[in-house]
Amino acid sequence: MDAFEVNSVSVTMTDVAKRAGVSPATVSRVLNGNANVAEPTRKKVLKAVEELKYQPNLLASALVTKKTKALGLVLPDVSNPFFAEVVRAVEREATGLGYSVLVCNTDDRPEVEERYLSDLRQRGVDGIVAAPSLEGTSAMERVLEAGYPICFFARDVPTLAVTCVKVDDFRGGYLAARHLIELGHRRIAMVSEPRTVPSVADRVRGYRHALQEAGIEGETILTTEETSIRAGIVVAEGLLGPNRPTAVFCANDVLAIGVMHRLRREGLETPRDVSLVGFDGTVLASVVDPTLTTIAQPIDQMARAAVEALVAEIDGVRDGTQRIVFQPVLREGRSTGPAPG
Amino acid sequence: MDAFEVNSVSVTMTDVAKRAGVSPATVSRVLNGNANVAEPTRKKVLKAVEELKYQPNLLASALVTKKTKALGLVLPDVSNPFFAEVVRAVEREATGLGYSVLVCNTDDRPEVEERYLSDLRQRGVDGIVAAPSLEGTSAMERVLEAGYPICFFARDVPTLAVTCVKVDDFRGGYLAARHLIELGHRRIAMVSEPRTVPSVADRVRGYRHALQEAGIEGETILTTEETSIRAGIVVAEGLLGPNRPTAVFCANDVLAIGVMHRLRREGLETPRDVSLVGFDGTVLASVVDPTLTTIAQPIDQMARAAVEALVAEIDGVRDGTQRIVFQPVLREGRSTGPAPG
DNA sequence: CTGAAAGCGCTTACAG
DNA sequence: CTGAAAGCGCTTACAG
Hints:
The structure is a homodimer. Chain A is an alpha/beta fold. The first copy, chain A, is built from 14 helices and twelve strands.
């Protein structure tokens, strides 16, 4: 308990006021710059601030203004390179607008997500950027109903009226499958996260649509609960066998890498034997050999749009919700090639 | 401004008190559980809490207790897979102990670091985990002098008396170089971040020590300001030419990947022509082909140690500083092989 | 065991 | 343009 004497930002606004010979209210006014203060007074105050190295206590001001200048960022797995980039980009944009960011890792577990949501509100964050774990989590709905500023990121829940920044997942899935079809593939499998994960269902639909459009019957969709390289390796089991596909579209890069490993281990070469497409456009895609063809998301632009939309809502500049949908782009690597035979 | 009516966690402790027919003080007591409250009273209160779905305002309690139950995490680049893992691990441990974490990305720029440090203090975070950008940043020193709980992570500043969790960087560098020497290499270069980056100097020293121990004269140390795959590609320029090394030790995996790419682009094969060792043990190392031999850091253990040490200091259970040094382990991939010829 | 009161460090009407 | 006062939502001695 003794530590406080030392730890706390101990010089207070009252100290500054005394030193400057004014009232605390005046100090507050010059620091916030939203009221008229006589120039000599302002100078005195600034001088005192300087001399005492005063730093305002944000907790105290937040208590009265109801603004913490902090944002929550709720993500399934920040160590997934896609979300790691998201953290970086959102943090950059938020900082640029004077906000700090609290990072929350849900592992896509709704209970965890719910706890975080509630904790973030107790902490009074001004808004939340979130990649929700399930369609229609009740916790999310409650937050929304409360009118709490929130922006979904990368994952959309179509049944909710919410601000959302994402990529056109349907089109992403479509681009991926069409690319493979154009290369002559007919047996094109998909490896997916559970379709309860928002946006995944759209990627699947896009994939399906391309297949149907090309008159291809019979799809193979493998699903894995977890998203990790290991999970990709495991789920790739279902791709082996005599009737194996000549191409695989994976719902994200991490799974694609796992699949690539497994195929190689089984003596199948990419793209000679099996072509592979990922999703997200992470660093992983450019680092593997062969480089992975992937559906890239413009993370930086998306982060900027999300933070701006959120802050606009916080500031009351914008009300009502909007969906901002970016176009994904097919980034061709060397993991895709003509269908064998 | 109207939004507040809706947004704020509007039911307050006073509301609960009224509903339960007690004083706010009593509500506070039952919620914090550190004072004796008669069983019937506690029940009434809990019932009211339940009915009103009351959630305490953490800002308000923090203002009086001086504890925000939040930690700052100051890192150079959260999109670097090593630090992305650090975010995940630190967040996990922090959450486990009831702390939230504010993530700050410095890009290794001292001015940015300084701003974050000051902002974190204004926000009253209870402690900070940081990978400092420069030896002896004055901002860091000031934070330390103020007695603010801080734990350096992965990067140490030997001149400061600070709690620090890291890997034995000297030994890491030594292990890397010795591994190459044992494979018969004599021309072993190193690619490094600037030696002003804490801990990098130790890796270099370890590398040097192994060379000297083996009686190898003439070292080559290339330095790059930035840490990115691109920077690795660029700096690898210096490795080419007739007298090129047969092995390269890179101060981190990201740079190693860049070097690997450049070598390949130049028609040099790893490990046939050039062996490569990285540092950190990130996912990148296991994903490239050939897999990268790397000096792995036990991130999860380190994160746990760091958060525990920090919280102990916050709780006043532990005072004084300590350095906790984990052993790095050489994780052999396929990027290292016998020296050619 | 419980309540009244003071106070954490700010901001903001309200007067003047 | 500036100050005194009230209040943000809690916690914590202090009485009883």
